[in-house]
Amino acid sequence: MRVLVLYVDRDGDIKAQGFDTPVLGRDEVLRLAIRYILANPDDSDANAIFAAVKIHDRLVAEHGSDNVNVAVVSGSPDPALADIAVLRELEQVLTQYDADVIYFVSDGPSDEAAVAAIQTKRPVVSVYRVVVKQARGVEETVTLFRYYLNKAIKEPEYRRYTVGVPAFLAFVALLGTAFNTELVRYILNMLLLFISFFITLYGFGIYDFLRDLLKKYEITFILTLVSLFIIVVYLAMLILGERWMPYYILLVASAVPFLSYMVEGYLATGRLRYGGVVGGAATFFFFYFIMPVILERRGLVETLTAVGLFAASIAVVVVVVQVLRRVRRR
């Protein structure tokens, strides 16, 4: 297996500094790294190029010099053209060294956006991100902060989040204050509540778990996040003694992700995901039968009746699924 260690400068900083790319071969890449770091000692691209050379040497010691090579390619400052420019230079490299797989090296997430485009040419077996470790004083930290703040505000790929989203939220808040509109303030509060809920899921790793579980089903992933939010808000309202959200919304929120999972799975594979049927039925019947009993604190007879209905409903669903499977086999 022939491996190409590839450093990708997606935004074209290397070419902007007057250095020609693509560059192929250990000696040529090392020479580029030295020249570039002498011209730009505070740029992380140079460190990443050195890291690519180091990875190349480590792979050579394991697989042999004939099976490993290293290269540097550049893109463009224009995000719409960056991946096309990277692919153009990668094709030039592959004509000289026909690699089977690519070991991708980058200095940040903006460069890693090119991975999807590169995989159209060769499989990417690994992604290595170079993080520059630095110890700085207060003045240097302020300078670094100003540099990244300027980058976040001026570059289009970042400013939509650093400027656009906060400005939109401030606009909605001021709009509600100016016109004394309760609806506007309510919408803003719910939006901020959802954002905080989303950040909570991300912080505790629930977001990553759901993303890995539903990575092939994007619509189901989004609907699952929204449904979890609705369920959590409804339960919080019950704890606080509020009941302004209709109960049927909770029922719909509990079933929609499973319905979406079945639909997306069927459209993608042509097969019905029976796990979605069982999971959706179980969740729906729990909120429909068990939840009211718990909330209204009914007696033992009512509780056992609800549990029995719940178990019977699940049994019916399982039987129906088994019958459908046998019919499909025939």
UniProtKB/TrEMBL annotation:
<feature type="transmembrane region" description="Helical">
    <location>
        <begin position="219"/>
        <end position="241"/>
    </location>
</feature>
<feature type="transmembrane region" description="Helical">
    <location>
        <begin position="274"/>
        <end position="294"/>
    </location>
</feature>
<keyword id="KW-0812">Transmembrane</keyword>
<protein>
    <submittedName>
        <fullName>Membrane protein</fullName>
    </submittedName>
</protein>
<feature type="transmembrane region" description="Helical">
    <location>
        <begin position="247"/>
        <end position="267"/>
    </location>
</feature>
<feature type="transmembrane region" description="Helical">
    <location>
        <begin position="161"/>
        <end position="180"/>
    </location>
</feature>
<keyword id="KW-1133">Transmembrane helix</keyword>
<dbReference type="InterPro" id="IPR007254">
    <property type="entry name" value="DUF373"/>
</dbReference>
<feature type="transmembrane region" description="Helical">
    <location>
        <begin position="306"/>
        <end position="324"/>
    </location>
</feature>
<dbReference type="Pfam" id="PF04123">
    <property type="entry name" value="DUF373"/>
</dbReference>
<keyword id="KW-0472">Membrane</keyword>
<feature type="transmembrane region" description="Helical">
    <location>
        <begin position="186"/>
        <end position="207"/>
    </location>
</feature>
